[in-house]
Amino acid sequence: MDTTHYLDLVAGGTDHFTVEFHTDTKPAAAHKSKRLRKVVTAVCMTGASYANLRVNKDKETGPLPWGTWMDGAEPFVIQHKGNDYARLYVIENGVRAIYTVDGEVVSREDYESFLTPSQRNAPRPNGGTITVKMSGVRLVGEPAFGR
To answer: Could you give the CA distance from residue 67 to residue 50 in angstroms, rounded to a whole number?
Structure first.
């Protein structure tokens, strides 16, 4: 998604949206010819200050661990090495994923069988902060909880 279009959709302060994004994952060497994609739909909060989230109460959150805020787009967009990333705060238990191998929908277990052991054991957010490459954002729906 174009960053300007994304900012137009989420403008107006803190709100909750349904966001859909995809990630193309590099398979393990034994499966290098496979095309792996995870499509995620998540209920997210945008525009919140990380330091002000309830989960971070009484914690020192510090600066961004990588990248910089896009001029005029804090706290919505991070820029790093020529790429834009959406900063999203996932609502607990608000994440759903579809896994595909070569364009065919498969189970999570089948998808993970094409990954390296370290990829299979990577933490999966069920809530909290995530950054998503803007080019992978496909849809920002209406505010999830009404206004």
So the answer is: 15
Q: What is the pLDDT of residues 26-53, one digit of tens each?
A: 999 999 999 999 999 888 888 877 666 6
Residues in Cβ contact with 38 at an 8 Å cutoff, skipping those fewer than 6 apart? 22, 23, 25, 97, 98, 99, 100, 111
Domain ranges of the chain: 3-143
Dihedral angle computed from the Cα positions of residues 108, 110, 116 and 121, in that order, rounded to the nearest 10 degrees? 30
| Alpha helices per DSSP H over the chain | 3-10, 108-112, 117-120
Q: Which residue has the tokens 């961004």?
A: 64
Q: Among 51, 67, 77, which residue's Cα sits nearest to residue 140?
A: 77
Calpha distance 49→41 (Å, rounded): 22
This prediction has a pTM of: 0.78
